[in-house]
Write a structure and sequence with these properties.
This protein has about 300 residues and is of the alpha/beta class. The chain is built from six helices and five strands; from the N terminus they run H-E-H-E-H-E-H-E-E-H-H.
Length: about 300
Amino acid sequence: MASQQDLKRRIRSVRNTRKITKAMELVAGARLRRAEARIQAMRPYADRMRELMIGTARAAGPLTSRLPLLEEREETRSVAILPVTGDRGLAGPFNTQILRRAFALERELEAAGQGATWLVVGKKGRSTLTFRRYELAGAWVGFTDRPMYGDAGAITHRVIDLFVQREVDRVVLVYNRYISPLTQRVETLELLPVPRRALEEEDKTPYEIALEGDFIYEPEPEEILARLLPAYVETAVYRALLESAASELGARMTAMRNASKNANELIDRLTLDMNRARQADITREILEVVAGADALEFG
């Protein structure tokens, strides 16, 4: 059995660790509320963007087939995979599950005879891919906990350039969708070419009904749609970054809460061991005193 001093030292160390994990849990919880508010504020803009695209695509008619970002290649030779990871760890399986899905997607592409081009967001993803000696066509780090619209713009500019220059035939985004602090779901988003379903009607909103009027477009609807499509892709990337940021904070808060709980259980177990060690020392000292007294009495 370990000595009392060793047990006291371990208890002190675990208590210090518990202070850190508790503080990180509280910080992540406070930042998570702000991240949730940013997602909520983003949704109306994304909805209006899609509705405007639907109305403009309806006006453009068959001319939309000439737009580069809507072009579906007859033969897919290379697919760009863009996993969105975090810049830091201590977030449970947040980064691992994203990379696991991305590598599974790569294996599926290889089985279909297609190549993979790698881009990545986040230091964790970049370090993993460079460790495995993958060549990266783009990497963006330093903003995953609080992404800005300009960050999404830089990513969008690069993936559109790769697609338009025909270096890749598809672009797939892999990210964590935020459900709740306890639940984050890995999503795979077909970023390019822009899916045709993004231009199709579902349940009409009042805004879409208003767009069905007889409008005169200046410039032509096709040209307007050509300008809207990059903005739509940029909005989709920004929304994924916000979802990922909230997911990372939720995963970190949960991981730190579990770490604090484990620390409490370890402290209780070590305290019990220390009490047993103290009792054993007291018992041994009493036996030594009794044995000494017996030795004096019968000596």
